[in-house]
Write a structure and sequence with these properties.
- The chain is mainly α.
- The chain contains five helices and four strands; from the N terminus they run ααααββαββ.
- Strand 1 and strand 2 form a beta hairpin.
- Helix 2 packs antiparallel against helix 3.
- The chain is rod-shaped and about 125 Å long.
Length: 248
């Protein structure tokens, strides 16, 4: 129970202000309900697209690094070939077998360097081919998601456009409606609304039941609500019970 020691008129005025605020918020809820999950779907698509874009950029960086490795390995192979040719020339002018064998070993090392470079080039090229396939698939999914986003944004724009003026008007009304409500009570109202599935924080008692959870409200409690001596909440759901609706 939210206790209040103010006068009957003050309590009644506060409840009336809360009911007015609830009426406006319920209208805003209905406008936003029409939009369904579209706003969330748009945000999800935007996040998914951003993720794909980051992935493509990362793949591009990896491909660039692999191409640089290939370039370096090709240069290393060329350098090794140049050394082999130089060693071949030197072998023609050696003075003994020892020098000949030493140069031969150097030539073998350079030939091994060429083989290693060629192997590394093939490995890098294979990785590039794999990443290019991933890039192609990711870009295809990215294009599809971009088209989906455009469609969803257009759909949302139409729905928002149809209700934008009403929503802005209600938002202005809400600002005015919230001003008379004291901060403590407004905070409680906001908390209750956040916990309520249907967004109802302030309800009437209708046919002896809470207008929010439909649990029975005892006669004595209904009398206390009608008296407006204090702000009373539902014992079952915690919603504020503003008044008792008169039976026809």
């Amino acid at each position: 129970m939210i206790s209040n020691s103010a006068s009957d008129i003050t309590v009644a005025s506060k409840l009336e202000a809360l009911l007015n605020l609830q009426r406006i918020d319920s209208q805003l809820d209905e406008i936003r309900r029409v939009r369904g999950d579209l706003p969330e779907e748009v945000r999800d698509l935007e996040d998914e697209i951003a993720g794909y874009e980051v992935r493509v950029a990362k793949f591009d960086e990896e491909v660039a690094a692999l191409n640089e490795q290939i370039k370096q390995r090709k240069q290393a192979a060329k350098d090794a070939e140049a050394l082999i040719r130089r060693y071949e020339d030197q072998q023609q002018n050696v003075r003994n077998n020892r020098e000949y064998e030493a140069i031969g070993k150097e030539m073998e090392l350079q030939k091994l360097e060429i083989q290693i470079s060629e192997k590394k080039i093939r490995e890098a090229q294979y990785q590039i081919d794999q990443k290019n396939q991933e890039i192609s698939g990711t870009k295809q999914r990215l294009d599809e998601r971009r088209k989906d986003l455009i469609n969803k944004q257009s759909e949302l724009q139409v729905i928002v456009g149809e209700s934008e003026a009403d929503e802005q008007k209600l938002m202005t009304e809400r600002e005015s409606a919230a001003q008379p409500v004291e901060e403590r009570l407004l905070s409680a109202y906001t908390r209750i609304r956040g916990n309520a599935r249907n967004g109802l924080a302030v309800v009437m008692v209708k046919r002896d039941a809470c207008g929010g959870c439909f649990n029975t409200v005892p006669p004595q409690r209904q009398a206390d609500i009608i008296a407006h001596k204090k702000i009373i909440v539902c014992e079952h759901c915690g919603r504020i019970l503003a008044d008792v609706e008169a039976r026809a």
